[in-house]
Amino acid sequence: MARITLDHLAHAYRPDPKGPQDYALKEINHVWDQGGAYALLGPSGCGKTTLLNIISGLVHPTRGRILFDDRDVTDQPTEQRNIAQVFQFPVVYDTMTVRENLAFPLKNRRVPREATHQRVEEIARLLDLTSVLDRKANNLTADMKQKISLGRGLVRPDVAAILFDEPLTVIDPHLKWQLRSTLKEIHRALDITMIYVTHDQTEALTFADKVVVMHDGAVVQTGTPDELFERPAHTFVGHFIGSPGMNILPCRVEGATAFIDNERIALKGAYPALPAGERIELGIRPEFVQLQPKGSGLPVRIRRIDDIGRARIARVEMGGRALAASVPEDISIEGDEASLAFDARYVHIYADGHLVPGEEPGGNAQ
Amino acid sequence: MTLVLDNVCRKVGAETHIRDISLTLERGSLNVLLGATLAGKTSLMRLMAGLDAPSSGRILVDGQDVTGWPVQRRSVAMVYQQFINYPSLTVYENIASPLRVARLPSAEVDARVQDAARLLKLEPYLDRKPLNLSGGQQQRTAIARALVKRADLVLLDEPLANLDYKLREELREELPRVFAASGAIFVYATTEPSEALLLGGNTVTLFEGRATQFGRTPLVYRHPQDLVTAQVFSDPPLNTLRASKTGSTVALSTGGQGPAAGAFAAAPDGEYTVGFRAHHLGFESTGRDEIAIPVKVSLAEITGSESYVHLSAGEHRFVALVAGVTRLQPGAAVTAYLDPRHVFLFDERGRLAAADLAKAA
Amino acid sequence: MTKTLNNKAWLFVLPVFGIVAFSAILPLMTVVNYSVQDTFGNNQFFWNGVGWFQDLLDPSTQLGERFFDALWRTLLFSAIILMIEVPLGIAVALAMPREGWGVAFCLVLMALPLLIPWNVVGTIWQVFARSDIGLLGWAVNRLGIDYNYTGDPLDAWVTIIIMDVWHWTSLVALLCYAGLKSIPDAYFQAARIDGASRWAVFRTIQLPKMRRVLLIAVLLRFMDSFMIYTEPFVLTGGGPGNATTFLSIDLVKLALGQFDLGKAAAMSLVYNLIIIAICWVFYTIMTNADAQRGRVQE
User: Fold this and answer.
1) Over the stretch B339-356, which tens digit does the pLDDT of each residue have?
2) What ipTM was predicted for this assembly?
3) Nearest C-alpha of chain C: how many angstroms from A23?
4) Do C4 and B12 touch (CB under 8 A)?
5) What is the tens place of the pLDDT at every residue in A200-225?
6) Mean pLDDT throughout B213-224?
7) What span, in angstroms and rounded, lies between the C-alpha atoms of A170 and A146?
8) What is d(CA C72, CA C221) in angstroms, rounded to the nearest whole number?
9) What single string gives the DSSP state of each residue in B299-335?
10) How many CB atoms lie under 10 A from the CB of residue A281?
11) Phi then psi for B255, rounded to 5 degrees?
């Protein structure tokens, strides 16, 4: 059990990094609290697996330190760190039974037989593996094997954190649901820090209390799922989280009004301090843009309406730019002309990709 | 062309991989094969391609029996889950390779490659080697190669499964347009219901080697003929419970009861399996005809805009998908409300007994 | 996976059938024919029934004694070779680098002995180990060890074994290396996290994942060493005395030296059957293990 601190951590795979472009992981300072459920979310190549491997000790960082509580573990090898890791593809020792697999980390640490036996039974019960304990691990399905990999991590009572590296990649959709809720239940039952790396926003958001979004080797935002959804700090977060992602449109701002090709959009506050010369964009999620019959709002042309089962999403065009909007339940629109209504509370302004806080009408920066 | 599978079976040793499937795929159509791993998607594609021969049944192309014809004699292209390209050739040569094999004049090759590259947004990368591209671009190259052949039948076996979420979304949005421009028969295998819905076209739901239903994708989604189809075509998983209807009331196996409205209205008295999707279960009463189910919260997962709430009621486990952020604590006892217009009723053999066809979804 | 039937395929196989019939089946029939007859030259043959086989398998006859001596000698040789080359090959494979420029270097180095023809190997060692002018023989003698492979049976054995180890260990090593390379990194990382010792990693990951290639390596090395002929023939000619007269050498002595075609034919048939029987045992072990694995994965 431990709090994990990343202190000025950076990593480059090249031996002598010069500029920031050489770093696979740019400088990061972060504290993972004991017992938290975290997700590291980002596209492939964003540095999330590098960060994970640094925490587990498989990769030694170029710069900076890692602390478990107040103990510096930067130079400690993996096996001394009390870290468990579950990989993308299940790792089981084929020649062993499930029981032997689960007991393996304890056996390596010379835990007495009786204690090992008890602990293995306990973890097997937690993961619903009791019925297969004496079968060869090789016999089992991918989700079972992934549970064994997880069990080998959990079996050590002293484990400081469990790291997951896209653990549900090879699991079928309906089993993903089960395994994910198993993970959450275990997190609640055992009070262990868990860090979950994935490129899948649904997995990240549903698993974690706090999500760290990474892009191009750097952390762009850390927050709860609803923070990331409602107030993306960076256009990348807006784009990456949400399906479809945030609509991002170049605009011009005057007072509390944004102009997109001379169409006016009301904002929730004024932006007097917008930096000059930077790229100014307006961002709003499709969930907060509603399709309406022609006339009342921004005029658009409907390209397509996607039926995703529980909702419908309109793909529309406004002055040559593509937008996504939600379609209210009982609406009927003739032809392909319609208009959009923006919910001013969720309209955000970005300068060079970064969120600019606006001033509330009362004068406070929000 | 038209591809017809006529009572096709495939057995390997003692195992049956494909059970008596009959389908008619029309020219210019997109057909999604939806099913879990090992449901028979790949087996069915291999039969369509002619990589395997059926154990019984016939395969007809435009009325001509092609059963047993080897793949070389058929007009087929295939895209796999893995990104399969020639690593030593440029993207251009990769796309051109089937045309080079067919010894087409180079002007024609160039025209077709440029065409396909434009459609799949590969123009800037034509001179690069595939391994220097992102996964999404590699798979675009493989798809372009399949298209450029102008085969009558294009098979895509979970082509987006190995891609990042966002790339998947991007390609998924473009593919229907790419397919529409081609005119071939497209067959697209996937494990994900949401992918089937986004692609549209037709869907075949597969379960243990059987085709449980075939029709327009939204129709199969909204009007499954049986319990298995509804389960295959639901993510989060379909919620089910038992209910018995007597007169104007419905009693549930989970405890709780409600008026026999919606789907129940037309159903005769008796026992049913009730199936409903996660987004039709809510925690706020609408005051209209609805069924109240006492449940216990086991977990709440928040995705930002929505919350998945995992519930238990006796032996049953449900998932509810509700809008916004729900801070329901695990262990809390709450009441979930179900609109009877949005349920499917299945008889003891799992066949659809009743549904409110106007509203069920 | 069954393939689409194509009857034309048989046409392509036909020439191979022809060649096999001509090169293997016909000569074999000739051998079978010889083995039941006696000859005194001049192409005169006399029916002898199973007489040669009876003599051969009865250690109390002269032929039988000679056969069993050579058989035990050959089996002992194969056993020693396997006991040295397999562990050594695994050890070399484990010691080889997994990435970097060292990989290519090691692979080339390993492949070198495999590229040398058998008789050249014999000749190289014949010279190398001579106690008068050979570097090895001379050096060993200078160290005060009385070493002479042409006179001392033990020295002859040691020389042949070292020669074979030098020649063939790299085959085992290369096969094992291929097996090791196919293990995903995640396994090693997981083992480190599980706190597994180097030995535990070897026993629980590397050895099981190498099993299939190891069986192939053992099979290849057994067959080759059991049929060894050229190198000892060149090096010792089967001597001193009969110390290194393995079955194959004995067979040639019998057939071409003494021209006892009947006896030699019977002996070669038995020799052949022994090899086939042992290979069959290996094959069954391998396929059984695979079948078990296959069932498991479905």
Assistant:
1) 888 899 999 888 998 887
2) 0.81
3) 22
4) no
5) 888 899 889 899 999 988 999 999 98
6) 93
7) 9
8) 17
9) EEEE-SSEEEEEEEETTEEEEEEEES---PPTT-EEE
10) 22
11) 85, 160
Rounded (10°) CA dihedral C280, C282, C288, C293: -150
Query: Could you give the CA distance from residue A150 to residue A354 in angstroms, rounded to a whole number?
Result: 38
Distances (CA, A) of A191 to A28, A105, A185, A187, C222: 25, 20, 10, 6, 56
Question: SS3 for B108?
Answer: helix
Domains in chain B with CATH codes: 3-232 (3.40.50.300), 239-355 (2.40.50.140)
Spell out which residues of chain A touch residue B236, defining contact as CB-CB under 8 Å: 177
Please state, in angstroms and rounded to a whole number, the distance separating the CA atoms of residues B340 and B288. Answer: 10
How close A139 gets to chain C, by Cα (Å)?
Answer: 4
Q: Which residues are A365's β-sheet partners?
A: A359
Largest CA distance in chain B: 75
Sign (positive or negative) of CA dihedral B124, B129, B132, B138? positive
Alpha carbon dihedral A341, A324, B358, B291, in 10-degree steps, equals -80
d(CA C142, CA C136): 10
Listed residue (A198, A193, A211) closest to A166, CA to CA: A198
Token pair 């048939």 in the structure block, residue: C269
pLDDT of residue A99: 94
CB contact under 8 A, B36 and A245: no
CA-wise closest residue to A287 among A338, A226, A362, A236: A226
Instruction: Say how far apart CA A73 and CA C107 lie, in whole Å.
Output: 38
A248, A350 in Cβ contact below 8 A? yes
- Polymer length in residues for chain A: 366
Q: Is B55 on the interface with C (CB under 8 A)?
A: no
pLDDT tens sequence across A282-298: 999 999 999 988 887 88
Q: Peptide bond before B236: cis, by omega within 30 degrees of 0?
A: yes
Q: Which of C187, C195, C208 sits opposite A109 (nearest CB)?
A: C195
d(CA B179, CA B171): 12
Token reading at B327: 């801070």
Contact A94, A136 (CB under 8 A): yes
Residues 6+ positions from B296 with CB-CB distance below 8 Å: B311, B312, B313, B331, B332, B333, B334
For residues A106 and A364, what is the distance between their CA atoms, to the nearest angstrom? 57
pLDDT bucket at A365, cuts 50 / 70 / 90:
very low
At A44, the amino acid letter reads S
SS3 A351: strand
Phi, psi (deg, nearest 5) at residue A247: -80, 125
**Domains, chain C, with CATH or none:** 72-262 (1.10.3720.10)
- Counted across chains B and C, CB pairs separated by less than 8 A come out at 16
Shortest Cα distance, chain C CAs vs residue B124, angstroms? 33
CA–CA dist A165, A147 (Å, integer): 14
Chain B touched by A329 (CB under 8 Å): no
CB contact A93 to C (< 8 Å): yes
- Give CA–CA dist B25/B9, Å, rounded: 17
Contacts of C4 in chain B (CB under 8 A): 50-53, 68-71
Q: Which domains does chain A have, with CATH numbers?
A: 4-235 (3.40.50.300), 246-356 (2.40.50.140)
In total, chain B counts a number of residues equal to 361
| Residues of chain C found within 8 Å of residue B12, distances taken between Cβ atoms | 1-2
Q: Which of A151-155, C132-136, C189-193 has the lowest mean pLDDT?
A: C132-136
Give the position of tokens 């995640």.
C186
A residues 161-200 lying closer than 8 A (beta carbon) to B: 172-174, 177, 180-181, 184-185, 188, 199-200
| pLDDT of amino acid A234 | 94
Whether the CB of A48 is below 8 Å from some CB of chain B: the reply is no
Q: CB C1 to CB B53 under 8 A?
A: no
